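Researcher: Structure prediction, please.
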Amino acid sequence: MTDVAQRTRLPPAGFRHIGQPLARKEDARLTTGRGRFSDDFNIEGQAYAVMVRSPHPHARIGRIEAGRAKAMPGVLGVFTGADCLADGLSAIPHDPLPKTKYDMRLTAPGGGAPFIGPHLLLPADKIRHVGEAAAMVVAETVAQALDAADAIEIDHQLLPGVFHSEDAMQPGAPAVWDEVPNNTPVETLFGDPQATERAFARADHVVAMDFHVDRVTGVPLEPRAALGQYDETSGRYTLYAGSGGAVRQKRELAAVLGIPGDNLRVLSCDVGGNFGTRNRAFVEFGLVLWAARKLRRPVKFTATRSEAFLSDYQGRDLVSKVGLALACDGRFLAMRATNISNVGARCVSLSPLSKGAGLIPGPYAIPVASLRAIGVFTNTMPTNAYRSSGRPEVTFAIERLIDIAAARFGFDPVELRRENLIRPEAMPYRNAVGMIYDSGRYEENMDWAMALADWNGFERRRREAAKRGKLLGRGLANYIESSIGAPIEQARITVRPDRRVDVVIGTQPSGQGHETSFAQVVADFLHVPLDRVNIVLGDTDVVKVGGGSHSGRSMRHSATVFAKALPELIARGKKIAAIALGAPPEEIAFNDGRFGSPKTNRSFDFLELAEEAARHDLPSDLKDGIAVVTDNEMHDPVFPNGCAISEIEVDPETGGAQIVRYASVDDVGRCINPLIVHGQTHGAIAQGIGQAMWEECRIEPDSGQPLVGSLMDYGIPRADTLPRFKTEIAEVLSPTNPLGIKAGGEGGTTAAPAVVISAIVDALRDYEISDIKMPATPFKVWQAIQEAKARKAQTGRT
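Model: Predicted structure follows.
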């Protein structure tokens, strides 16, 4: 192993707050019932909206009989897709293609922009998935709206549906959209197919596998809610709805309503969980605004948990057909893959397919590769970016393939990885499909994780487990992920005369601790106390520009724009200090957080200077005081990376699996607040483990009916099903931004599915089981054991 002592995290020189594990200041509000979540907002006189959702996955919409419903007590209106068209409402302008310069460019087959499938607030032609809203009822109470919704009759002309991506690609499969008869809106080739095939032809070893990383959903703590208001006097709309970015929601919903952006205010205050689920607009957000204008009163919608299972944007659902070519000494020669993403009934986001496309080789020096990236329509809920979108899927494929190759061809799985990991001196490194990794020490991460997990003590623990009748297995996975996100961000920083600093920023937290960690950066840049910094988010009347929170972008983009604002803040401060001190501006210096002149013993910090400025008649160019608006456009991706190791005990009698150890090392670049990053790592690991062991949005293959409608049907990780994690933070700074930040919120998810399944398969090695399909439920594991026993019995082996 390499020496890992040098990787111990040290506080960065010159900072008082950056790098410190400070408790989150927003927690006092959030844990004492003083949060401002979407459903907490109410307006006097509000009415309540309920959606009539389709029980069918594919059907033409015939006559909608709503007369009886409209006559029921308390009913204020029933609205359909025909009404949307009559009022000129537009489709939600989903823009599914990533927008930075270095994202993998996905196209339609043969080139050009993909057809995305228009997303009207209510469909007027066809239903395309179970749970799609076909009509909306608004009434005085929720109970009255529910009763009326039950009274609506829709003449559904049933059509055949298709639910699995590979089925949808077959000739003659039902078309989800007439405009795309083969159901394939996206097909793009990456890499060098010819060189890849030559490498496979001369390889000593070839291993290939097909994996299906199934569909999951975010299960945010707060089901989505929306409250719409319309002011007849001003002609302005107001929406209260939690999201991944209020600025984007404002832009898209204004386009739906056909109004100028200034006529819509969106408030996205505290958000009870996102994970990507809330990054794109939902139809209910536009519907409550539209209904509020039509009915001249506020309208509120709150989803039930069962509705969320049917109608939240979902994640994953990738088929990966992957092959690896090796030399006789274990060197990786080439990789080829076909990745098929089930985009659902509409193409809401292609981030999962694009992000995964750039990282199919993982952190390994694979000379050549080829990838066929395909997006497919099906009669299912649209998929969206979900925590570390696209990266857990491709990490699972390459890491499982390496384990299978090691077992099949007699290599040690750790040494096989060590032989092929990209070396630090190769950075920046262009991988075989063109992505340029910025920095990383992958082998050191692996060795550090092995030390953290007590790698050498495993065999002793395996023997102890065997004495208890348990099978202990171990898994290891290296990972790399990319963090890019919307390229534009803006900060408005004002040092106020009351000795406070307001920082307006366009990201949107959903539990990440932005109010604390952003304040740490600003406090250190300005040399002011942390409690004097106020982070302002989520109100589009204040936040005018910003890319929201996704793809691990928030801290990197915000810290960059803060750093860019600092010279201008200092320059304005020097001019104001010159007036206050009666000195020429060129004599004013800013040292150790204070403005001063060598000709006087007076000096000011930023807070004192703002207070002093209020006493002076400043010239017109300084009337705003110490205040700047700074924009930045960042296209360079960063590549967080790391290694995870798990140990899992399997009960061969029941198939039950229990994680008994889990260790990870995650390179996040500069770590602003280790306490917050460790918390995010723990949550991310739990989310990845959940998919590996319990979570699946299962659909009945013949009827297309979802079989998951509540938390009775959908397993999620809980405190008593997880071990105490051992996590460490590596800080290999990125050269792409001033503080060297990468990202810290998604890496734990990226490696977890691979490392959990590898550990379970290792526990079952005596049964010659090479793979277990996720989620590895006790029944699936037990069934695999029984099938292995039957195979041995047939061959006469014991």
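Model: The chain has 20 helices and 28 strands.
Researcher: Thanks, that helps.
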